[in-house]
Every structure is written in C-alpha cells, then in structure tokens.
C-alpha cells in the first residue's frame, strides 16, 4: 500500500469510529439509574417504621441504589389508588406500588398495565412458601402479578387496659356482652368506641367485621348475591355500635381514632392489626398486653379476616432491574420478618421466624392455620369488585349519618346486584 492509500484507510477508520461513537451515544439507551421508586400509603406511626425496616433490608443488599419512597396518606389506599391510576395512564409508572391482593388488582390487570412476575415466583421459590389462599388472590389469567408482604387480621377490637381495669371490665366474647361493656363505659362518662371515618373506609371496616359474624351472609355478599333481608340484622347491629362512637368521628383518620384510645378519651376501636403497629411504634411506645389489649370482634373468634398488602410491578417501570430486586426483598423471609413485627401483621410466608413476633402475632400465626373461616376483606380491596367496594364506602357513610337500616339494606343490596362478580368465593 502506498502512503496516500494508507492515509486514506486510516482516515476512513477514524471517521467510522467517530461517527459510530456519536451514533451510539445518540441512540443507545441511557444506562439504568440505580434507583427504585416505590409508591405506598404507609404514613402513620408503625406503618412508616415498618416500611423503613423493609427498605433497610433492601439497602443492605443494594447499598448504592437510591430508594425513592412516594407516600400518599389516607389509609387503605383510598387516596393513593387514584394517583396510581392517573400516573399509569399518563405513562409515568413508578417501579413498584402497593395494592391489596384480590379484586383490587383486577382493573390494573384488565388495563394490561402490570408486568407478570411469573419468573420471580419461580426463581424465588414463592409457590412453596406462600399459602394457597393468597397465591390464588394474586393470580389473574393464570399469571402472577403481585408479591404479598404480609397478612393483616381485620376482625380485632383494640382497647385501653387502664380504662378496662378502672371499670372492672373483662374482654367480651359475645355481641351482647360487648354492648353491655359499651353501656357500662358510657354510664361512667367514657366514650366507648373510637371511630375515625374521615376517609369513610374505617366505617366500612367496622360494618364488615360485624357482617363476618354471619359467614353465609358474608359469602353471599362477596359473591354478589346478598339480599336486603340478610343485611338488615347486620346493619341493626352496626347501628347499635354507632350509638357508642365519638361525635367527632367524621373529622378523624383511623390513626387519630387510635390516638383517642391512646389518650384515654375512648376505650376501644375496631381496626386491623396495623393498629398494633400504631400503639407499639416508637412514637407511642406501648407494649401489647401492658397498656393495651385486643379481642376478636365478638362472634368472629374462629374467623380470620384477611387484608393482604402486596407490591406490583407496572409495565414500563423506569428501573426494572431494581424493581425486581425490590420485589425479591418484599417476598423474602428476611424482608418479611423485618417488616411485619413492626407493622402489626404476620409474614405471608409460612416459614416465618415465629420468635421475632410478639404473643399477639404468634396467636395470629396459629389462628391462621386453624381458623374455621378465612374471609377476604372488602374494605381492604380483596373481597368485592372495585365497582362495589368503592361505592360501598359512600353507602356506609350515608348510613352512619342517617342510620336508616331498611333504606341502607336495600341500597347496598341493589348496588351489589348491579355489579358482575367474576370470582366465586367459598369461605363457609
Ligand atoms: C390497609 C393496609 C394496611 C394499613 C391500613 C391503614 O389497607 O393494608 O397495611 O396500612 O390500610 O393504612
């Protein structure tokens, strides 16, 4: 090769390299940032502490990844779910977001905005460790779309022990005993029950637990077959319950209602066991069995109301690598045993380390395995389609105001009759 030819060849190679480099720079995808955005509604004492513990496990395993925690207060996801739908529709999906197992997932599945995570369920061995009842609730169309992090029990009454002791009260086991306790407290000038239904769902939550005293009614309700005649006795009991609640209930959130039990201005509250997380959080500092106790909603002792928090993986998550790492931690034994003792729930995994849980949660672990009835919460997304669950909050809220048993029974029954229920539950 003569000199000129050599120069030309070198120039061509250099030009090709430069052009190639520029083109690569312009069209190659930017490397994935080491970041994961997780959306949730855990903002109350206990909830936020538990999430921090879960994030710590993630950060120990992924120390150079930034966790962006996007919280929307409101409890039960009432506010966060609206934001999630807006973001998903606008193509601004986070990497992972909180949702309940069961029906609550259906609109997202139908809109095809979730990534199936069958591969993770396979590689992480989750099929072997999550209870079948939960596994069935996170599958749609034969695929897995969520990782459950816990099982909360919803049919619990939390009470202030000092108030009970000062009034010589013991834990009631029947509805009549419960009403007698309420009457004694009221006569003593203490508001018996704390309710905080500013965001409506805590009233639905209480109604649901009363309905669970009649499992056949509950099953008919979630299968879309309940009648107004079946609902009337339930609403009658609920009406009795409402006769003992604080007058400012409409101004308070669920945790502010717990705050009334904490401050000794109310004696009891029906709430899921995130209330235990509230009372035992560092900000409150109570110990279960010392300052506060719990009993099962009278009539539901052999029943276990399920509220299952999950995390989902949207399609188009901007950081899929870290989203998957997050989900792995959510489903891991280590993650669940760090999160749940603080949250008040039990691990969803059947191989949880029982020694990490207090006596209340150990009871729940045992009860879950032996309960006569496992019922999926309606107020917490699992039991009924969203077209029922969401307007039900309004109907119950109307009942809390007008206390008209027969009008509400027929309004709720016709709401349910007008909605298609693709799933058939068998809980009795
Ligand atoms: C439930 C949720 C619980 C708890 C509660 C109050 O729906 O599953 O984890 O956080 O809301 O926010």
Short summary of the structure?
The chain has 428 residues and is of the alpha/beta class.
Q: What ligands can be seen in this structure?
A: beta-D-galactopyranose
**Helical proportion?**
40-55%
Tell me about the biggest sheet?
Answer: 5 strands, mixed
Structural class: alpha/beta
Low-confidence stretches: none
**Overall pLDDT, averaged?**
94
Structure description:
This protein starts with a helix and ends in an 11-residue tail after the last helix. The chain is globular, with a radius of gyration of 25 Å. A hairpin with a 2-residue loop joins strand 4 and strand 5. The longest helix is centred in the first third of the chain and has 25 residues. The protein contains 19 helices and 14 strands. With 428 residues, it is α/β, with parallel strands linked by helices. The protein has a five-stranded mixed sheet with strand order 2-1-3-13-6, with helices on both faces. It has a four-stranded mixed sheet with strand order 9-10-8-11. Helix 2 packs antiparallel against helix 16, helix 10 crosses helix 12 and helix 12 crosses helix 19. Bound molecules: beta-D-galactopyranose. The site of beta-D-galactopyranose has 12 residues, from loops.
